[in-house]
Amino acid sequence: MLLVKNVSKVYDNKKKAVDNLSLEIKKGEIIGFIGPNGAGKTTTIRMITGIIAPTQGTIEINGIDISKEPVGAKKNFTFVPDHPTIFDAVKGIDYLNFIADIHEVPIQQRKERIERFTKAFQIYDALTQTINSYSHGMKQKLLVSGALLPNPNLFILDEPMVGLDPHSAKILKDIMRDHCQKGGTVFFSSHVLEVVENLCHRVAIIHRGKLIACDTLENIKKNSTATLEEIFLEMTKDE
Ligand SMILES: Nc1ncnc2c1ncn2[C@@H]1O[C@H](COP(=O)(O)OP(=O)(O)OP(=O)(O)O)[C@@H](O)[C@H]1O
């Protein structure tokens, strides 16, 4: 579903933010992407989603090279960024219908999905209000609902748990699990290691731009009884 091959990103000809990173994610998997601040998570996600171009390497989504066929590749995923900008002056429902229009979601399906996701996130009753009246968490839930509307093959999220209360975080985790059980794929970055530990089939760890692990939790733990947090801190500690 997602194939990242030998990808590097150098900013301003000097800062190597991502260094020869390769990653393959299969259909039906949930992958958690973790790493210390500044490790290169957002840069990697911005390259995967076609927002910035890699300095080197290739990225394929469902077999389509995003640098060669950006429109075709982008039909296969949706994305929730870490610092989203959202049209503040429109109503929540108008935003969702706009997203559904872009992705050509049929009327009946969009109605059913809008109700399902926004009721689960408890923002359904606020949909007739303009977005500038929403709290940060409500905006995040609206964005996630919008990204789920097209029922994407691949669902990419950068730090999705930030600003969500425990109830909403639980709903998002259930939605991610459900999406994968139905054959979808989820790739998300997080600093919340418990979420990654409980939710993901595999964990990818990036440190100083290099992918230092990408495996099941069992394999990463190698029979130890340590938690993901303990392993993460050990693997990414400064010598
Ligand atoms: N536009 C940019 N221009 C120059 N350097 C950048 C740019 N964006 C990111 N960087 C640098 O690239 C490195 C990786 O940043 P990135 O935002 O990808 O890390 P991250 O793992 O997402 O960090 P965090 O967990 O703090 O969000 C950092 O050293 C950062 O300062």
Automatic annotation (TrEMBL):
InterPro entries: AAA+_ATPase, ABC_transporter-like_ATP-bd, ABC_transporter-like_CS, ABC_Transporter_VariousFunc, P-loop_NTPase. The keyword rRNA-binding does not apply. It comes from the Bacteria. The keyword Transport applies. Keywords: ATP-binding, Nucleotide-binding, Transport. One of its GO terms (molecular function) is ATP binding. It holds the Pfam family ABC_tran. Residues 2-233 form the ABC transporter domain. Transmembrane segments: none annotated. This is ABC transporter ATP-binding protein. It comes from Alkaliphilus serpentinus.
